[in-house]
Amino acid sequence: MFIILDKVESEAVLIGVSKEVKNHEYRVGLTPASVFELVKRGHQVIVEVDAGAAIDFTDDQYVAVGAEISHSPEDIFARAEMIVKVKEPQAHECKMLREGQILYTYLHLAPDPEQTKLLVESGATCVAYETVTDAQGGLPLLAPMSEVAGRMSVQAGAHHLEKAQGGRGVLLAGVPGVAPAKVLVIGGGVVGDNAASMAVGMGADVTILDRSIPRLRQLDNEYEGRAKCVYSTDAAIEEYSLEADLVIGAVLIPGAAAPKLMSRDLISRMKKGAVVVDVAIDQGGCFETSKATTHQTPTYVVDDVVHYCVANMPGGVARTATMALNNATLPYALALADDPVNALFRDANLQSGLNVHKGSVTYKAVADALGYDYVPAYEALKA
Predict the structure, then answer these.
(1) Which residue of the set 108, 160, 307, 357 is catalytic?
(2) 282 catalytic, yes or no?
(3) What is the mean predicted confidence (pLDDT) over 341-351?
(4) Nearest to 200, CA basis, from 176, 231, 162, 173
(5) CATH number of 144-311: 3.40.50.2300, 3.40.50.720, 3.65.10.10, 1.10.246.40?
(6) pLDDT at position 363, please?
(7) Catalytically annotated residue among 112, 193, 245, 282
(8) Residue 108 a catalytic site member
(9) Sheet architecture: strand order including 227-231
């Protein structure tokens, strides 16, 4: 059942939702509930045929709330004034973007020079979910997927610790008389906290590393001795990773490439059959041996250590992830659609999501990582 909202008087914007094309990516940019809210505000929405079918959002459901179904992604990109996606556009999608068009999706540009180049050349206005902020300085559009990925990281790690999956043959919780697996979580943010919560709940021996003393205090209070909270240094990473059966890489520098916290040499000295899960792989990964994988082929082995580096982990639980993502992204989508000219000027938190605008790179961490001249978002918008 949908709740009817008061209509906001604004010029109608044509919003396009294309089907995701990344390997085993079944999420969709807008749910039928989100489309309903946009249509009730006077906007038009075109959705690619079967865009949400894999997670039981049918074309009939979209039509019932006022969407038009298109059989061609080219048609959607050609007609829409605003494109709403989940994952970063692939090369052929970037080439369909144009000046004056708004792209609203995850981008993760810092480790991706080719995508950045194509977006700069397109002239489009590109707003990245992962760098939009809130009044507390948090990342509200990244948080729900970080929660999902953090929880999935332990689920995936436990599965790949099984001997048949190439792991050590260790049960995360152990059994009476046999010690549980040792789990190291590097990073105590949203991903790390959710990973630790899952690992503790499954009965593992958990250590969390972080560089923020206030954050370590929070985590220590939260877990009440059920997880060790340790200040992160190179020596601590080495000590605890060599003892670990499972390591979760959960570090984040907003919008920037992830720091390499574990060298190949350190990986090579881990236990045979240990598992590392690199949740930071979207931003280039935090292990020197990391390379992006897919849900189709999620792991590879380096020096007898199993690496799980799926770049779109939440896509594995696509229905849950889509609904969680839409809960966070919809208010900003409404703001952009209701007043696309001024929304980025008015809202500093939304403005922080602007990564590329009319050929300029407007997010400093991306410009620094890839060697572009940095143009502050407000200056680019004024120009």
Answers:
(1) 108
(2) yes
(3) 91
(4) 173
(5) 3.40.50.720
(6) 97
(7) 282
(8) yes
(9) 227-231, 205-210, 182-186, 246-249, 275-278, 305-308, 299-302
